[in-house]
Amino acid sequence: MGKVISVHSSRGGTGKTIIAVSLAMALLKKGFRVSLLDFDFRAPSLFNIFGDVVKVPVEYWINDFLNERCKKEQVLIDVTGSPGVDSKLLIGLANPSVYAVQDMMAKTRGWEASALKKLYSLRSFLLKNLNMDYVILDTSPGIQYSSINAIITSDLLIIVTTSDPLDIEGVRSMLREFYDLFEKRTLVLLNKVFPEMELLHEQENTELIKQLETLGHPIVGAIPCYCDVLRAKRDYSFSLRNPTHPFIRKLEEVAGKLVNY
Amino acid sequence: MKRTNEEPLPREDSHERMKDELRQLNLKIDSIIELNKQMLSLQREFLRILDKNREPSHSSGIGAVPDAVALLSLPTSLRKTMFALYKFEEATAEDLSHETKRLRAVESASANQLARMGYLEKKRVGRKVYFCIKNSFKEY
Fold first, then answer.
1. Is A106 near chain B, with CB under 8 Å?
2. N or C: which end of chain B has fewer CB within 10 A?
3. Which domain holds residue B35?
4. What gap in Å lies between CA A73 and CA B58, rounded to an integer?
């Protein structure tokens, strides 16, 4: 049976979304059936990333399913056959309109309780009925209901952090007070490591990795910060246009490791 | 002869005027008391309607559909059962024990505790007891 993976971080700007998308593309390249869902209802971005291949206007968003306006299968957009997408790829988008963002921010605990149950039913549908190998959930940073719900329903949690000490301390405290309560398999992925740290000061980098290892969870990879990745057009096809880019190669390595967890 | 404002009123007139003002004041107070009564009555009605439509409180954790925060506040043992049960529509203690890799008796005790807390519903089918998470939303 397939796995649900949440990509989360303690703070914003760690590169969760690009990592979630690139992981999905790397898993597709290995021939897996993948579903990528946007659970960042406060700052939705998958809509823009898949803007070139999604039919506009989008008929139903994940918000609509959670708000009981549509069935779960109606929010899944099949983009299989789009340029570079040879295996099955289903995406679910969060509504980026200001109204929808405000609406999601004003939900009650009762609504969130229902959303959690719906998310479990979506999980079951994707893994059992549609036989997806991987379902990747891109979440909001920090402690948000949508993210907690996503983490609860996941089998594996990838925490993305940069080498910024504030990020690392944020992860440490979130692990202690939050992530560990879920008892999920948790991996730490270090992103945006300064390239000069990787190339010139290996010792410092090793120290950084040692510091991360004290978090008590496996470090699944350390990805340098590449200006061309930051400058590139933010769409799903970055990995297709740049298959040999070290960023993509590193994420393919990470994807390869995920199969063992 | 026309009097100026500064000139004092004759004593009788002054008493009459004071009485008149007191009567008016009394009338105003009566009307304020009446309005206050009406407002209290409306407030009671408003609270009654609000209470009727209010979602179940999750902070107490009793009789409510558990949200993520309520789940996190549960003891680890109960939380584990709850997470396992989310993966099933309904499950027996035996099903839960397969999922959590704990003893059936442990799952039975946890699920019964959660049912007593109002998080789960329990039903008997033949000799088997099934647990399911309370439904508070329309199923698609």
1. no
2. N
3. 10-52
4. 30
